[in-house]
Amino acid sequence: MTTVRQRRVGKGTEAAEDQPSEEKNVKPDGKILSDDTGGKLWNVLSVTVGGIVAISLGLLTSVYVATLHENDLWFSNIKEVEREISFRTECGLYYSYYKQMIQAASIQQGLHGLVYDNKTESVRTINILERMNVYQEVFLSILYRILPIQQYLEPVYFYIYTLFGLQAVYVIALYVTSWLLSGTWLSGLLAACWYITNRIDTTRVEFTIPLRENWALPFFAVQIAAITYLLRTHLQPVQERLTLTAIFIATFLFSLTWQFNQFMMLIQALALFILDCFDMLPTAKVTWLYIIQISGLLLVCVLQFFNSMILGSLLLSFNASVLIARTIQKNLKKGGLLNRLGKLILHVLLVLCFTLLINKFIKKILNLESDEHIFKFLKAKFGFGATRDFDANLYLCEEAFGLLPLNTFSRLSDTLLFCIYVFVLFLMTVVAVIVAFRNLSGSNQDQFMEKMEECTITLKPDAAYNLIHTVLFGCLALSTMRMKYLWTSHMCVFASFGLCSTEIWKLILKCIHLYTPRRTYVIKYSIPIITLLYISYKFWPGIMDELSELREFYDPDTVELMNWIKSNTPNTAVFAGSMQLLAGVKLCTGRTLTNHPHYEDKNLRERTKQIYQIYAKRSPEDVYTILRSFGTDYVILEDSICYERRHSRGCRLRDLLDIANGHVMDGLGENEPDLKPSLYPRFCEEIKKNLPSYTIHFTRVFQNKTFHIYKLAKHK
User: Fold this and answer.
1) Which of 95, 302, 604, 626 has the most CB atoms lying inside 10 A of its own CB?
2) Could you tell me which of 661, 642, 664 has the C-alpha nearest to residue 652?
3) Separation between Cα atoms, residue 496 and residue 193, nearest integer Å
4) What is the distance between the alpha carbons of residues 475 and 374, in angstroms, rounded to a whole number?
């Protein structure tokens, strides 16, 4: 088991443009008429200062997380094998392809090795570029090879510094989104500060560097910023085209770098659909966003050699269904309240039916089953019946896929983030409901626009989109803890926007009959500044203490295991074991695996379940036959799995296997009536007794406090 220990001493702006307030004189094309040249200079100065602050905060965040990573592991001082072991589970698998490309004799040979890979899954040749989102590793490895930096920078540092650099892009994108929404860069400053001070809940990049989400989320944040800008009024045609291009590029990069992109963009498409139904976004822009999502995903599909999971995604089916249904119902946004509600209900049902039919048809044609485990997991998670499915239970029992813990809210409240977020969310939701009702009641679009100009309560399209975005991703985070990073980062944006928004403070002051433009102006700036001072006073000492705390990577058992494999087994040896450990085996030793943690393939899931019989109650003959069917030469058993105590009874890996095999679980507690005792003891325990029935098939060749390696006999 890996730990960290105390290190031994030894070697060693405001942007008012495009969002003018109602007191200013505005031309029809949206440009503000400045009273004098001084006003223009002030705007330029404000934008310049705001931009400098954004870039500075982004770079500081990169340095901050890089320093935390160095201090936690003493990364610059540990051996290469220890560095590689620090890339846990699937992180190690992804990094191994970067290493493979770097070590290849040529770029062409490296690419050939990925397209025709026979070391990731034994007795199978798979296309890594099709199965996994590793184009970023390919691009980085090629860049490292062609740049003249090999003498100055090790490959691993080029890799991790790129990821830490993307954190700068992430923070700048959050900053810009908040700035665009509120009209002041002070809002962006507050959003960035909240992101940093709530680091535990906003990012995990410093200890899961190669994880796909750390590549993808910065591009997702850029996309949200671009969408926010696109939804502003009075954009010039050239501005609109450039913004759509930026959205497409960000969407494409987000889709290319994360296998779960389709599910995130489905939620985004649902947000656009809801807002479009209630006439809160321009239909033409929404249509462009649907098309961009479809085209971006299809381009990724082509690059991934027509990955069937992408073609069968709900996102493509949903977006196509919306466009078809809109063509059928051309007068959707005309009529009175009851008329429009009826049309809206019919429209929703039509889209839902089309989505299911199209998706079912595509999956039937392609014989697609790659994502069935996700739907089994969701069905069981939300109470649509218990399941004995091994894959679904494997997800259900992981804390990361459980509900968001309540202590998350107490941590977020310590920085005032959650409290302010809830306050802003409540106000904006009330406004959205009122505006949606008013829109549905309007007899025609012209009258609606006239009413909007006269009414006190308004909701701009960019604010409306970010409201629905945060609500939907909040629901996702509450239901699945692993997805909280999509919500908490946007929470920083939304809360800071609300605190610095002229419209929100104007609404509050009008409700209590205290509104004046000057009072609104003072509150808009004073409260965010006070909040920033509070955050600085309370959390700056803790950040300094965190940066001064020095630890050291310490995992001697895994290091010993990897060194033994490299020194005592042939390069062609095939290893079986847990998914998480085998990813490290591939990275550190280059040996062939039977299974791995990238779980989005039905054959691999079935293979993993078979390999995991080493922790079930099966006969030595059965286990030997299973392992040899996958070409296994060595099997690694882990005491931490065989005698697991991390999970409660019913969620331990051995329990999941027992249930799936129809066997009674170990220990005190109830069992389902139809479960029966196994005829055999647990394999991982019994093999250590060196009984003849086991030694005829398995010979122990290595052991330490954590791991046991057995070599399989090669019977004729």
Assistant:
1) 95
2) 642
3) 10
4) 17
**Which tens digits make up the pLDDT trace of 31-58?**
444 456 777 888 899 999 999 999 999 9
Which of 625, 615, 621, 694 has its CA nearest to residue 658? 615
DSSP letters spanning 36-48: SHHHHHHHHHHHH
CA distance 226 to 240: 10
Cβ neighbours of residue 573 closer than 8 Å, sequence gap 6 or more:
565, 591, 592, 633, 634
Which residues share a beta bridge with 32? Answer: 26
Catalogue all structural domains in the chain, each as residue range(s) with its CATH number: 163-548 (no CATH), 556-712 (3.40.50)
Q: Contact at 8 Å (CB) between 597 and 121?
A: no
Distance CA 321, CA 351 (A): 5
Cβ pair 591, 561 in contact under 8 A: no
d(CA 256, CA 254): 6
Question: In terms of DSSP bridges, do strands 707-712 and 698-703 run parallel, antiparallel, or are they unpaired?
Answer: antiparallel
Q: Give residue-wise pLDDT tens across range 281-323.
A: 999 999 999 999 999 999 999 999 999 889 999 999 999 999 9
Q: What is the mean pLDDT of the chain?
A: 90
CA–CA separation, 170 and 490 (whole Å)? 11
Res 433: pLDDT: 94
pLDDT band at 18 (very low <50, low <70, confident <90, very high): very low
pLDDT tens column, 406-417? 999 999 999 999
Structure confidence at residue 378 as a pLDDT band (50, 70, 90): confident
HSE-CB at 700 with a 13 A cutoff on CA atoms is 15
In sequence order, what are the residues at sequence separation of 6 or more whose Cβ sits closer than 8 angstroms to the Cβ of residue 250?
219, 220, 222, 223, 226
Phi, psi of 210 (to 5 degrees): -80, 0
First to last CA, the chain: 38
Dist CA 580 CA 544 (whole Å): 34
Rounded-to-integer distance, Cα 471 and Cα 403, Å: 16
Give the per-residue pLDDT at 19.
Answer: 40
- What interhelical angle do 89-103 and 135-146 show, nearest 10? 40
Q: Is the pTM of this model over 0.85?
A: yes
DSSP assignment of 652-679, as one string? Answer: SHHHHHHHHHTBPPSSSS---TT-B--S
Q: Which of 430, 425, 493 is nearest to 456 (CA)?
A: 430
Question: What does the pLDDT look like over 534-553, one tens digit per residue?
Answer: 999 999 999 999 999 999 99
Amino acid 546 reads E
Number of alpha carbons in the 13 Å side-chain half-sphere of residue 237: 0
Tokens of 563: 């060194």
What is the percent of the chain where pLDDT is above 70? 92
User: What is the per-residue pLDDT across 347-361, written as a single tens digit (0 to 9) for each?
Assistant: 999 999 999 999 999
- CA 545 to CA 42: how far, in whole Å? 39
Residue type, 577: G
DSSP letter assigned to residue 312: T
| E-assigned strand segments in 605-713 | 634-638, 698-703, 707-712
| DSSP characters over 193-205 | HHHHHTHHHH--T
What are 272's two structure tokens?
Answer: 């656009």
Residue 487: name the closest of 397, 435, 425, 414 by CA.
425
